[in-house]
Every structure is written in C-alpha cells, then in structure tokens.
Amino acid sequence: MASAAETQPFRSRRRRRFRERALTGSTPFLLIVPLLVVMATILGYPLYWLFRLSTQQYGLFQLIAHHGTSVGLKNFSSVLHDQVFWHTLVRTVVFTAVNVGLTMGLGLLIALLLTKLSAWVRVLLSSGLVLVWAMPVVVAVQVWYWMTNFQNGVLNYVLTQLHLGNFDQHDWYATTTSQLGMVTLLIVWGALPFVAITLYAGLAQVPRDLVEAAEVDGARPWRVFRDITLPILRPILLILTSLSIIWDFGVFTQPYLLIGQSKITPGNYLMSVYLWEEGYFKTDFGRGAAISILMLFIVALLSVAYVRRMVRIGREVA
Amino acid sequence: MKRAGWNAVGVAVFLVMVFPVFWMVSTAFKPDSQVISLTPTWIPLHPTLSHFTAALDKPYFWRDVLNSLIVVGVTVAASIVVALLAALALARYRFTGREVFIVLVIGIQMLPQIGLIIPLYVVLAQYHLVNTLTGVILTEMTFVLPFCVWTLRGFLVGLPKELEEAGLVDGSTRLGVFVKILLPLMAPGLVATSIFAFITVWNEYIFARLLLNDQRKQTLTIWLSYFSGTSRHTDWGALMAASTLTAIPVVVFFLLVQRKIAFGLTAGAVKA
Amino acid sequence: MKRRSIVALSVVAVLAAAVLTATSVAATTKATASSITVWLQVDAQSGWPGVVAAANQQFQSDHPGTSVNVQYQNWGDHLQKFDATLAGGNGPDVIEMGNTEMTKYMAAGAFADLSSFKGSFANSSNWLSGLAKSGAFNGKTYGVPYYAGSRVVTYRTDLFKAAGINKLPTTTAQFALDAKRLLAKNSTKGFSPVYIAGTDWYFAMSFVYDYGGSIAQQISGKWKGLLNTPRSIAGLNAYKSFFAAASRASKTTDETHPNPYDVYAQGQAASMVGPSWFSCCVGKKYTGTTAQFVMPGHVKGQSMPGFLGGSDLAVPVTSGNKALAADWIKDFTSTASEKALQAKGNIPNATNLLGNSVNERAASRSWFVPTAKHWVDVENGNILRNMLAQILTGKLTVKQAASSASDNIASVLNQP
Predict the structure, then answer these.
(1) What was the ipTM of the complex prediction?
(2) Is the Cβ–Cβ distance between B126 and C26 less than 8 Å?
C-alpha cells in the first residue's frame, strides 16, 4: 500500500496538470470573447430580423405597423420560381469568376514585381496603389464614367489616337456585356492595390536566405516560386481568393452607380442589384430578407472549397 | 531581367494604375470650361484653386475630418487588437467549436450589407447609439473584424512553429514568445491589415450616413456626398477637389507605415 | 471544463440579451418639446439657407424654449433613412418628400393627417393643383406643397439670330422648322438644335398630355394603362418626329448622361429643354447669350404642358410633436417664405403668388404622374424609358411599344 507521502505528490501533480489544461483549454475562448461580444451586440438582432422577416409579408405598411403577416416559405418560393433570379445568378457567377481571376492573377504579378524593384520605385508604386485604394468608390465611379463616356471620354480619344480603331462617340454602356466589362475593369482596378500589397507583405515573410540558397543551388525562378514561395503564400492566397469571391459576388455600389438606375434592367442585374431592386427599392422587406439569405447560402457554397482548405491548413499547423 | 528593366515596368504599372487618380486631381485644378470640354485637357495650363476654396467652404469640413479621424483611429486600433487575439486562438490552439467559429466569422462577410440596414438601425436605436460616433465605431468594427481575423490568422499560420518552440525551450512564457518573436515577424501582416481597416473605415458611407444625422457629428464621406446629393447640378470641379482632400490622410497614413512592410524582408534574413 | 462552459454560457447569454432587448421596438420617439427635427434636402442648404433661417427664427419667437434641428438629406438615400426611422424611431418631425414619392408613403400610413391644420397654412386654398394632388390621399391632406419647378427651353440668343429666327416659335411644328434652320447653320458633328436625351420621359410625356392623352387612370378601383389610346399615340408620334428633327443626342441615354447643360456649355447645342435652373451652368462663354422661353404645344397659343416637379412637406406618423411640426411648416411655407423661394428661381406653392417668369408661365399648363401607390415602381423599372428607346431606335413601332408599356404599367400599378 502506498504511503500518504507517496500519494500526495501524485494528486497535486494531477491537479496541476488539470489546472494547466484548463488554462490552456480556456485561453482560446477568452481570446475570442471580445470578438463574439462585438458581433453579437451589433449583428445578433439583425440576423434574427432577417430570418424572421424572410417568412413574412413585410412591406412599408407592415414596417410602420411593426407587424408582419406570416406567409411561411412563400417569399423563398417566389424568388426561386423567378426566372430573373436564375439568370441573374448565372450572370453573377460568371462575373465573379472573371473578376476574381483577374484580381488575383494581376495582384500576384504586381506583388512579385514589387519585390524586384529598387526602393524608390517600390515606394512610388506602392504609394500609387494606396492612392488608388484610398479613392472613395463613389468618386472612382464618377471618374471612371467620365473617362469612358461616349461624348467626351478620354478612353475613346486615346484609343482612336492610338489607331486601334475608330472609337469616336463609342458608347461603352450600350450592351450588357460592355456595361459589365466596364464594371469589371473598375472593380479589378480598385481591388488590385489591396491584393497586391497584402501579397507583397506575405512575400516579405519568405525567408530571404532560403530563396538565396535555392538560387545558389541553381534552381530556376519558377521552381523557387513553386517550392518555396507558394507554400508560404498559400494561406494568404486562399484567404484573398475566398474574400474576393465573397466581395465580388455581393458587389453593389460599382455596378449600380456606373450603369445607373435609368439603365438598370433585369437584363443586366447582378445579385446585389437584384436584391436592392426587388427587395429594398420596392420596399418588399420580406422578399429582400429572403433574397439576402439565399445570397448568403450561395456565396457560402461558392467559397466552401477555399474555406475548407484554409481551415485544414490551420489544423495541420495548430 | 536587370533591375533597371524591372524599374521601368514598375513605373509603367504605376502610370496606368494611377491615371484615374491623376484625372481626378487634375480636374480639381481645371477651370470649369476645361472640366467639360470635348477634347481632354491633360494638364491644366491655367490651374485654379477656386474648386478647393468652394469645397472648403462647405459647412463643417474640418469638424467632419476630426470625426472621421476619431472613428477610424478607434476602430482600427480596437479591431487590430480584438482580431489579433481571435487570430491567435484560431492559429495556435485547438478547441471545440473552432471550426464553427471560423465559419461564423467568415459568414459575417457573406451577408449582403444592404440587407442589414434597417435592423441594424433598430438595434442601435435601442441602445441609444444612433447619432453617436460610438454607434458608428461598433458597426464599423463588426464589418472590419472578420477580414482582420482572417488575414492575421493567415499571416500567423504562415509563421513556422519552430520559432515559438525554440523560444519556449529558451524559457520564456507564452506571452513572451508572442511579444518578442511573433509580433515583430507579423509586422508586415499587421501593417497590411491596418491599412485595409483604415481605408475601409475611412471610406465607409452606408452605415455612417444611416446613423449620423447631426452635421456636426458626420464623417467626411457624408460631407462628400452632399456635393452630389442635390437635385440641382453637381459642381464637378468642387467634387473632385473635395475628393482629393479626403484621400490625403490615407496616403499620409500609408507613407508613415509602409516602411514596416519592408522591415519584414530583413527580419526574415536575420532570424534563421 | 468548467471555465470553457462558463465562457460558452456567457456568450450565449450575450446573444440572447441582444435579441431580447432588441425585439421590443420602440414605436415613437421620446417626445421632447425642447426641440423638433426637420429633414430638408441639401438643395435648401446650398440654395436658400436664408429662407430656412428665417423660418426657424419665426418658429422660435413663437415657441421660445423649442429649438429647430435641421438635418440635410441627399435625394439618393433619404427614403432608405426614412424607412429605418419608421422602424426604429428617432425620426424627424418634418420631412421633405419629392412629390412623386408621396403616394406610396401616404398609402402605407406613414404620415400624420394634417387636414385639421390646413386652414392655418398660408394660401392653402390656392395651392398649385399639381402639388396639392400629390399631398392628398383619400380626401385627407398629408403633404403641404413646398415649391415646384417646371420645364422650359433654354436657348442661345446668338445662334437663333444667326439662323434667322427672329420670332420665338409658337407651335411645336414651327420649332421643328426652326431646328432645321439651326442645323443648316451649325453643321458640326453631334450638334443638336434642341438637345433632348432620348429617354427623357418627362419631356416625351408632355407631348402625350399635349395631345390629350395620358399615362394611366384609375377606373373603378383598377388602373388602366392609357398610352395605347389614339391620342397618346398621336403624342408619341409627335415626340418621335420632333426628336428626329431637333436632337442629335443618344436615343438610349437619359437626361443626366450627359447633362444637357454640359452639352450646351461645350457649344454643341443651340437650345435644351429642362428645369429653369439649367441656366446656372451654361458656362462662362454663353451666359451672356442665354435666355429662356416656354416650350410651345402643337396648338398655337398653347404652351406644352410641363412636368410639374416639386417637393411637399409632411409630418411622419412617428413624430411626437405634430402640432409643433405643423407650425414649423406653416412658418416655412408662409407668403414671405414662398416669395423668398420664388426669388431664388423656384415656383411658389400657390397660384395667387405666381409671377411672370418663364418658369412660372410654363407651369400654367402642367401634368403630373398618376397618383398610384406603385407609381415609383413604374419609374424605377424604367418602363417609360425603355418604351422611348424602343420607339426612337425603331426597334418597335409606336403602337407596339406603347401597348406593351401600357400593359406593363397597369400590371405594376395594380399590384396589391
């Protein structure tokens, strides 16, 4: 039989281990509490409101009366049976793919370019990128419209001067493809600085000596990029891609303002414009809530592949 | 390719990207007739400051600058801290509900903001935070936090665990490891994230407009919106001048912190 | 284990608290008789701040101890803000609404009934019919006319003289002939004798009303689209031929892309049709040679009915200070106030105050949109704009385009 002296240290060791585990066990929770508090305070009610309203007939009249009539899933079924919804969805998915592809591709190229520049050019280019980033979206849309308008836009002038064709009085907003093309250019232009600078910051974390050692060994730049840089950059690339998908899918200000209310039709709707026009502009809040929730699920679906991969990366490391 | 070659490409990219900004600034100095002329005027030969004076004449400009600075300053500082804590939890710990938490955080980003306008107003009215800067700050934090958490986690995950373990072996506490080893390495990531937060909040309009009614409490983006909110004609020259003014603080902030990103390059070399 | 669940529980508690406290929504603002809130559009701040200040002064001398908090709004988002306050409180006591925006909100019960105060508003028995109609619903008064604006022709006196036009046109047909003369003398590409944007429905519908047609009418409770009646079609045909003779503008863009006054200031238009304030922005070069006249109709001696745009003032039903709000409106629409607005180029709200400016003469014959709950949906759905684009580009015949637009409008207006 063990003496009391022998069992004593064993119990206290167990208690200490339990305390340690409890501490490390609760540390992560303590770390995320501030975030949760802010989120819950601000978004708790809106989320509840969104879900509740999506099952109600809730227009202006009901808003003023603070009371809607329950209609079950009628809002959802009416949206899902709407041809416009499906056409808009397809259009938005294609639009998102093009935008994200261009943004990430060009962003990575610019980030790589930044690493190759002398200090003064680097500061010049990165300051220029920040200038672009700093421009308020509403102003950027206005400037973009000026540059591309058919009457006296710089774009038509320059293209004609460069003898790329006769673009005099060419209306870039005449067809849906052209309209969305202009919107794409504007959005990619506006999104590049953020992607480029964030990727550049990520590249800055690649240990210089590893790269140099590989180059000394005779590895070609592409191998170096693929085997050393890319793995380190992968988490950030995944994050930026998933964020870009989410943002480009739900983008509103640029298409709405650049195309303009008078030219917005179901034929050139993007999802958020559809949400705005069919829900909030018509003050059919119940329908708007239903569309918001559908958008949430669709975007979640589109980005699940990237989110999964990111979560998995975290799992390996932690 | 030689350095000079890359530099040339860099300058070319700069010119292409910056052109619309250049157009905005140049228009701010053009006399009215050149603003609407049929043939574009690249650089105004007779620049005028009248648009800038017209812009500064609009009521409450300096007050609104102060309000914007307060909102942005507090939001960015608080968001970085809160996000960093959460990012640490996600990147370095295993805990139940971790995956749910991640999905929740990224899910917030997926909500279409327009859909939240009315209920957000209702809840803030309940807390008596309508027409207060605090209400705007809390709202901004909510929308900026998910991105910050995500990005900071990405940077953290990219840092090799061996560094921390080496530090722990050396005898420092977990907190010590964090402050002495992780934080400096994360500098580029922190800077990039804070730049993003700064710009996003500085340019935020929808919720600031919704929540702030008193012109003395409004932010600069609302001040800017008055130029084009009228049913009469918009003074484009003044709008461009006003927009140029609102972009300046962001550029200043960036120039102050951009050196920190380069810092990371050398830090990586020293560490190993 | 325990700590984890404590943290988890507290998170749930915060969430629950947030939901519970927020579900009890306050319907009315706390009624403080110490101040009232007024929402005016930013047009007032930049255009006639003195008028606002004078009204505030008058109000405060009548109600010492109550201050007026004027908050300026943008046309683009003021309705979304208003919706939010209808749901969450802290809304204004007085709100400026565009006259086409009123019906929808009146039908939803957003405004307080001001019928009992009507007698106290200056000149209320002489209110301009176009504006008064926009503020009335089911026989009650919810909106007080604030100011109006009509459409006039702004023209280059030097170009007209050079083209030999010594007398201003008195019929649309004469104007079309004058346009030909202007075109002969000004042959630069893209030059418009009369700049009219293709989808400017405010101007196009004037032709419809000039010929006795209309957009829609409510017959025994149901809305019927009237654009495909013979008279309306005659008007649309008249518009089509006038456009062909007079305007080189794009057939598919609206009246803000580009702004007609920008085209005018570039020297690319001899005249343009639009609100009278267009004269502000014709450029330094042409300010001296610019004047205005009333757009003639197709019958000699009759002006073309102009769209009467304007604003009304209403008291939201959520306000706790209805009597004070009505009193402020009374001060802001007093005869002196309206005369001051008139001096700034606006049309005052009553016929006995009308002067002889071009803007006011143009308002003598006016038309207004159908006062239907869902009219804004017709506007936002660009039904009229699309119809005009189809007519002008020849995609559809006038009859086809008008018929489909008519059916469209009826179905939108007849929504529950």
Answers:
(1) 0.84
(2) yes
